[in-house]
C-alpha cells in the first residue's frame, strides 16, 4: 500500500506542477517541446496488457495513455485553450461534421488552419464526420460513394465521402486524421454489421489513397465488426494490409454497455499492430477508461467531463457528485480536498452549488475545469503506475475510493 500511496502523491504532484513532473518528460525535450518532423510512437513501459508511451508529433508529444478533451466546434466549451492545457491535456479532438458545416473547413483554412483559428498550437485529432453524420444529420442517403445529407443547422445539402473527409481534415490542418467509416446503429444483425464493416474497409483503402504522403501527419484506420470476434479479426486484417499510423477500435460506446464493450476489448486491441497507438473512440466514464487502459488502449476521447460540467455534475475519486443537490448549499468544503484545480482550491461546494443553480457561466467554467483536471490526473496516475509496474494496485485503489462514495453531508 505504501507504493500506491507514493503513486497517488506523485500523480498529485504532477497535477500541481503541470508538466514539470520530474522523471517523466523525455530527456530530449527542450522548453517543453521535443523537436521532430515525424509522427512516431514509442512504448516506454508495459504492465500486463497496459502500455505507457509517447506519441511524438511536430506539434509536441502526447503522453499515453492519453485522454483527449473534445473541442467540437473549435472550442472545448467553457474553457480557454490555456486552461485546457493547464489541466494536463496534450491533444484535443475536433469534429469534422460540425466544422465543415460551420464555419466551414475552407474558411478555417483561409484563416490559417484550426490550430491558429482556435489558439491551440498542440496536436489536434479530427474525427472523420462519419459517426456524427449518421447520428445528427437528416435526410441521409448512404451509397458506396459516401453519404449525402442535410445539415442539422440549416438544412443545406452536403456530401461526405472518404475523399471529401480527407480533404476537410487536411484543410483543418489536423495532426491525426481518422479514416471515413460507417458505424451501424445498434441493434443490428450479424449480416448488417458484416456488410457495414466491409464497406468501412473499402472506405479505409480510399481514405489511405486520398490522404497521400503527408510527413508529420498521421492517418488512423478504424476497426469495425460490432461485438462479433471474427468480424473484428477480418476488419483488423484488412486494416493491417493497408497500413496505418495508428488504429482505432470503432463501433463501441454506442449503447452496448460496459460488459459487452470490455468483452470486445479483451481481444480487439491484440488484433492491432503492437507498435502503433490504439485509440478507443468516444469513451467514456472514468471506470470505462481505466478498464480500457488495462486492456491495452492508448488514447480515448469523450464529451463527458465537459458536458457533465455544464449540467452540474462533478467527477471525483469518489465517483459522481451532483452539485445541484441542496445538501451542498451550506457546505464550506471543496468538491475534492485532494484536487489542485482552481474550482477545488478556491471555491466551496456552497459556491459551486449556488452558481450552478443560478445558471451563472462561472459554474460551467469551474466544474468543466475540475472534471477535465480529474480526468487528466487519472491518466497521469495510470501512466505513473504502469511505469512502476503497479497498475493492478492503482486500479484496486481507484475502485475502493469510488466504493466509499462522496463525503458525508455536514
Ligand atoms: Zn478540482
UniProtKB/TrEMBL annotation:
<feature type="binding site">
    <location>
        <position position="181"/>
    </location>
    <ligand>
        <name>substrate</name>
    </ligand>
</feature>
<dbReference type="GO" id="GO:0008479">
    <property type="term" value="F:tRNA-guanosine(34) queuine transglycosylase activity"/>
</dbReference>
<dbReference type="Pfam" id="PF01702">
    <property type="entry name" value="TGT"/>
</dbReference>
<keyword id="KW-0671">Queuosine biosynthesis</keyword>
<feature type="binding site">
    <location>
        <position position="370"/>
    </location>
    <ligand>
        <name>Zn(2+)</name>
    </ligand>
</feature>
<dbReference type="InterPro" id="IPR004803">
    <property type="entry name" value="TGT"/>
</dbReference>
<keyword id="KW-0479">Metal-binding</keyword>
<feature type="binding site">
    <location>
        <position position="339"/>
    </location>
    <ligand>
        <name>Zn(2+)</name>
    </ligand>
</feature>
<protein>
    <recommendedName>
        <fullName>Queuine tRNA-ribosyltransferase</fullName>
        <ecNumber>2.4.2.29</ecNumber>
    </recommendedName>
</protein>
<comment type="pathway">
    <text>tRNA modification; tRNA-queuosine biosynthesis.</text>
</comment>
<feature type="binding site">
    <location>
        <begin position="127"/>
        <end position="131"/>
    </location>
    <ligand>
        <name>substrate</name>
    </ligand>
</feature>
<comment type="subunit">
    <text>Homodimer. Within each dimer, one monomer is responsible for RNA recognition and catalysis, while the other monomer binds to the replacement base PreQ1.</text>
</comment>
<keyword id="KW-0808">Transferase</keyword>
<feature type="binding site">
    <location>
        <position position="224"/>
    </location>
    <ligand>
        <name>substrate</name>
    </ligand>
</feature>
<dbReference type="InterPro" id="IPR036511">
    <property type="entry name" value="TGT-like_sf"/>
</dbReference>
<keyword id="KW-0862">Zinc</keyword>
<dbReference type="InterPro" id="IPR002616">
    <property type="entry name" value="tRNA_ribo_trans-like"/>
</dbReference>
<feature type="active site" description="Nucleophile">
    <location>
        <position position="301"/>
    </location>
</feature>
<dbReference type="InterPro" id="IPR050076">
    <property type="entry name" value="ArchSynthase1/Queuine_TRR"/>
</dbReference>
<feature type="binding site">
    <location>
        <position position="344"/>
    </location>
    <ligand>
        <name>Zn(2+)</name>
    </ligand>
</feature>
<feature type="binding site">
    <location>
        <position position="251"/>
    </location>
    <ligand>
        <name>substrate</name>
    </ligand>
</feature>
<keyword id="KW-0328">Glycosyltransferase</keyword>
<dbReference type="GO" id="GO:0008616">
    <property type="term" value="P:tRNA queuosine(34) biosynthetic process"/>
</dbReference>
<feature type="domain" description="tRNA-guanine(15) transglycosylase-like">
    <location>
        <begin position="49"/>
        <end position="402"/>
    </location>
</feature>
<comment type="similarity">
    <text>Belongs to the queuine tRNA-ribosyltransferase family.</text>
</comment>
<feature type="binding site">
    <location>
        <position position="341"/>
    </location>
    <ligand>
        <name>Zn(2+)</name>
    </ligand>
</feature>
<keyword id="KW-0819">tRNA processing</keyword>
<dbReference type="GO" id="GO:0005829">
    <property type="term" value="C:cytosol"/>
</dbReference>
<feature type="active site" description="Proton acceptor">
    <location>
        <position position="127"/>
    </location>
</feature>
<feature type="region of interest" description="RNA binding">
    <location>
        <begin position="282"/>
        <end position="288"/>
    </location>
</feature>
<comment type="function">
    <text>Catalyzes the base-exchange of a guanine (G) residue with the queuine precursor 7-aminomethyl-7-deazaguanine (PreQ1) at position 34 (anticodon wobble position) in tRNAs with GU(N) anticodons (tRNA-Asp, -Asn, -His and -Tyr). Catalysis occurs through a double-displacement mechanism. The nucleophile active site attacks the C1' of nucleotide 34 to detach the guanine base from the RNA, forming a covalent enzyme-RNA intermediate. The proton acceptor active site deprotonates the incoming PreQ1, allowing a nucleophilic attack on the C1' of the ribose to form the product.</text>
</comment>
<dbReference type="GO" id="GO:0046872">
    <property type="term" value="F:metal ion binding"/>
</dbReference>
Amino acid at each position: 500500500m505504501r507504493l500506491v500511496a507514493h503513486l497517488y502523491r506523485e500523480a498529485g504532484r504532477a497535477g500541481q506542477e503541470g508538466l514539470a513532473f520530474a522523471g517523466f518528460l523525455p530527456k530530449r525535450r527542450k522548453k517543453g517541446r521535443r523537436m521532430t518532423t515525424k509522427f512516431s510512437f514509442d512504448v516506454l513501459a508495459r504492465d500486463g496488457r497496459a502500455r505507457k508511451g509517447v506519441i511524438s508529433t511536430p506539434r509536441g508529444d502526447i503522453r499515453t495513455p492519453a485522454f483527449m478533451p473534445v473541442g467540437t466546434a473549435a472550442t472545448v466549451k467553457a474553457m480557454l485553450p490555456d486552461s485546457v492545457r493547464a489541466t494536463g491535456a496534450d491533444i484535443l479532438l475536433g469534429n469534422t461534421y460540425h466544422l465543415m458545416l460551420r464555419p466551414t473547413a475552407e474558411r478555417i483554412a483561409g484563416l490559417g488552419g484550426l490550430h491558429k483559428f482556435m489558439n491551440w498550437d498542440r496536436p489536434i485529432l479530427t474525427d472523420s464526420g462519419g459517426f456524427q453524420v449518421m447520428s445528427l444529420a437528416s435526410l441521409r442517403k448512404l451509397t458506396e460513394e459516401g453519404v449525402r445529407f442535410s445539415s442539422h443547422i440549416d438544412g443545406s445539402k452536403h456530401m461526405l465521402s472518404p475523399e471529401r473527409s480527407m480533404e476537410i481534415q487536411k484543410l483543418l490542418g489536423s495532426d491525426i486524421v481518422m479514416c471515413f467509416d460507417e458505424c451501424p446503429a445498434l441493434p443490428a444483425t450479424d449480416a448488417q454489421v458484416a456488410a457495414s464493416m466491409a464497406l468501412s474497409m473499402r472506405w479505409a483503402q480510399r481514405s489511405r489513397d486520398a490522404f497521400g504522403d503527408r510527413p508529420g501527419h498521421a492517418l488512423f484506420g478504424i476497426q469495425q465488426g460490432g461485438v462479433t470476434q471474427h468480424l473484428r479479426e477480418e476488419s483488423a486484417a484488412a486494416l493491417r494490409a493497408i497500413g496505418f499510423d495508428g488504429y482505432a477500435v470503432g463501433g463501441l460506446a454506442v449503447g452496448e454497455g460496459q460488459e459487452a464493450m470490455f468483452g470486445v476489448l479483451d481481444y480487439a486491441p491484440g488484433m492491432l499492430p503492437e507498435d502503433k497507438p490504439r485509440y478507443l473512440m468516444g469513451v467514456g466514464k472514468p471506470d470505462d477508461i481505466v478498464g480500457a487502459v488495462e486492456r491495452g488502449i492508448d488514447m480515448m476521447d469523450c464529451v463527458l467531463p465537459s458536458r457533465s460540467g455544464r449540467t452540474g455534475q462533478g467527477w471525483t475519486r469518489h465517483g459522481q457528485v451532483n452539485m445541484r443537490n441542496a445538501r451542498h448549499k451550506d457546505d464550506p468544503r471543496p468538491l475534492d480536498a485532494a484536487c489542485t484545480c482552481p474550482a477545488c482550491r478556491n471555491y466551496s461546494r456552497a459556491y459551486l452549488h449556488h452558481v450552478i443553480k443560478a445558471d451563472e457561466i462561472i459554474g460551467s467554467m469551474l466544474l468543466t475545469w475540475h472534471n477535465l483536471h480529474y480526468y487528466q490526473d487519472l491518466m497521469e496516475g495510470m501512466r505513473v503506475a504502469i511505469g512502476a509496474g503497479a497498475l493492478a494496485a492503482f486500479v484496486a485503489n481507484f475502485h475502493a475510493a469510488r466504493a466509499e462514495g462522496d463525503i458525508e453531508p455536514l
